[in-house]
Amino acid sequence: MDERVTRRWVLAAGAGAGLALGGCGLFDDDPAPPPPPDPLLPLRDAALALAGTYDRAVAAQPALQARLAPIAAAHRAHAAELDRILDPPAPAPSASAAASAAPDAVGAPTVAELRAAERQAHKDAAAACRAAPADRAALVGSVAAARACHAEALR
Amino acid sequence: MSQALVAGLAAEQAAIYAYAPIGVRLTGAERAEARAAEAAHRARRDTLVLRLEQLRVTPSAAPPAYVLPYPVTDRAAALKLAGEIEDGVAATWRAALRDTEGGDRGTALAALTDAAVRATRWRRLAGVTPLTVPFPGRLG
């Protein structure tokens, strides 16, 4: 008797467990937690942010256009190349990082500030290159070298 | 991995060779720039020789002479060749990034970056614009 009751309890417990598992199944249709962002995403975002910074500098000092526009274009080219390999694909850049149609000259950086930003950005890209898997090392290495060249070109 | 370093060593040796005819066509600050570049390539070469010894790799000896792409007859040709030499060194080291890791990756990246920065300086001295290329070391 005691034994039968016990078995019934066990069955009930089993049914309960089955229900509970079924309950879990209800959530199967929910999206899986998003995969972690690509480790190169910050590099892509920084490239776009730098490009926008150059746009503001040119807006404030149009005479710098010839000197700075190729560097802004290089940062956008870096972002585009990184976008091709990011896994998962990058979300759309934030409004502040995106190129604005009419860059605001307010808070525009000086050439010296651009140079300091490039030096820091070079360090970040160099660290990313050293940590990158083989198939990404060349692209990230070129980004790092380009940033060092930008700093040199701004001397 | 060691083949990438051997290729880098060969590029450094070729650069050292080329800076001799480049230097004689330059004067003043430009000649000093060539001397400094040559010294940097020699330092990189020495580092690589030591590293390859550590890896027990014996690279073939540098050829006694190289064929320059054109005669270096004047300042303009010297500045042009100097930029091209650095672009070539950068390309070799960029290719080496894929095949290296750890400290050797760091060596390749530093060599790529230094060559690309020197190429930027040579373009400025030659009056070439833009001074920079979007992807240093990438061919085409």
TrEMBL record, chain B:
It holds the Pfam family DUF4439. Signal peptide: none annotated. InterPro entries: DUF4439 (IPR029447), Ferritin-like (IPR012347), Ferritin-like_SF (IPR009078). It comes from the Bacteria. Residues 4-138 form the DUF4439 domain. This is DUF4439 domain-containing protein.
